[in-house]
Design brief:
By secondary structure, the chain is an all-alpha fold. 65% of the residues lie in helices and 0% in strands. The relative contact order is 0.06.
Length: 191
């Protein structure tokens, strides 16, 4: 095995010497230079790579001030409960536009519906309460909104729709507190 390694080393040395000898023995061509253009003589250097652009920073969504949202909602809700419907609606509309992702949004929409209901504007109340049930069907305020939709239809003389919405409430949410009142209203309505 040693002999094989010694032979390999000897071959490597021989190869290195022969390369050296060949390099020395090849004559370098020289002579008069031609006046011909030599485009290969001035090969342009590769263009420098542009500096990487900094990654665009994501615009941070402004943090919603929950205390301001809460205060604005509570102001609107209190005005609605005090039957100051016009003022309440302005405050609630302000809340709705400023805090569309707030967890208080279903409540704000509900109380906006209450402002219309208090003014006996039943068609607009119905539309607003339906907005609650469509956008937030699993929220507790959706059950209250179903009750108010039924009551709004009843108060506007549309018994068929009143029964439809009140029965929907009772059937889909039998244990909801709003269902107890819905059952009582249904007993008063003709079928």
């Amino acid at each position: 095995m040693m002999a094989l390694e010694e032979q390999m080393a000897a071959l490597r040395n021989e190869l290195a010497e022969s390369r050296k000898t060949m390099a020395e023995s090849v004559p370098v061509m020289s002579g008069p230079e031609s006046s011909e253009e030599k485009p290969w003589a001035n090969v342009p250097k590769p263009a420098p790579k542009p500096a990487p652009k900094p990654a665009p920073q994501k615009a941070l969504a402004p943090k919603q001030d929950t205390s301001s949202a809460q205060a604005l909602y509570e102001k609107g809700q209190q005005l609605a409960a005090s039957e100051k419907s016009e003022e309440a609606r302005k405050v609630l509309d302000s809340f709705i536009s400023k805090y569309p992702k707030s967890n208080l949004m279903p409540n704000a929409l509900y109380w906006k519906g209450e402002t219309y209901y208090a003014q006996k504007n039943y068609p607009q109340a119905i539309l607003t309460f339906k907005d609650v049930t469509q956008r937030y069907p699993r929220h507790a305020k959706a059950q209250d909104a179903l009750l108010k939709i039924g009551m709004s239809y009843k108060n506007s003389g549309d018994t068929d729709n009143a029964v439809l919405y009140l029965r929907t409430l009772v059937d889909e949410h039998p244990n909801a507190s709003a269902s107890a009142l819905a059952r009582k209203i249904l007993q008063e309505l003709p079928e």
